[in-house]
Amino acid sequence: xxxxxxxxxxxxxxxxxxxxxxxxxxxxxxxxxxxxxxxxxxxxxxxxxxxxxxxxxxxxxxxxxxxxxxxxxxxxxxxxxxxxxxxxxxxxxxxxxxxxxxxxxxxxxxxxxxxxxxxxxxxxxxxxxxxxxxxxxxxxxxxxxxxxxxxxxxxxxxxxxxxxxxxxxxxxxxxxxxxxxxxxxxxxxxxxxxxxxxxxxxxxxxxxxxxxxxxxxxxxxxxxxxxxxxxxxxxxxx
Length: 238
What we know:
Layout lengths: L1 E11 L6 E7 L21 E4 H10 L9 E5 L7 H13 L4 E5 L15 E5 L5 H8 L4 H13 L3 E7 L7 H11 L7 E5 L5 H6 L13 H13 L8
Parallel strand pairs: 2-4, 4-5, 5-6, 6-7, 7-8
Antiparallel strand pairs: 1-2, 1-3
Helix pairs in contact: 5-7
């Protein structure tokens, strides 16, 4: 079995707990204007790796998984390679290695993997369905369905909101986010403030970076946190 990745490396605490070996899997079904990894959007590209060789690489790295660390699969969107992702996650769980994925949550079969994911990180881009499709190109109904199931069935879920001025930072957006998230039974939420780390990549790829004036102010952040807390939503920072 082949797994196509476009980047890998260690990261501490930001993609799950502890020190983690992070694999960025090729391909994404969304086209978020602020994407920091545009090279991972297309289904083609990246490097095809043999699954068994990748598992051996992970085994050799076990000494680096300190403070509760392990392996995280992100993207792109890891569920675009669903069968390969499932194979890797189940093999790693069988070896006692801590697993995490960061996903946009839209793949309908995502709940099939809940039992082999220790830490489920789900990005939530826009709370209004029509705007979600307009911004990302993808419907949000599967995302919301999967989040509801995860809130009921998975012991460790984190919702991340990439907070971007002009795309999901209006008062209306904040209120809607809070109402929706309050339905998920105490699942913690993290705000990821907009940054332009991906702009240079868009430029190198000959693409026009779509976001202008995307930075959010301290006032917007504190206002959003206040709204979330008023609705009983727990927030965290990693």
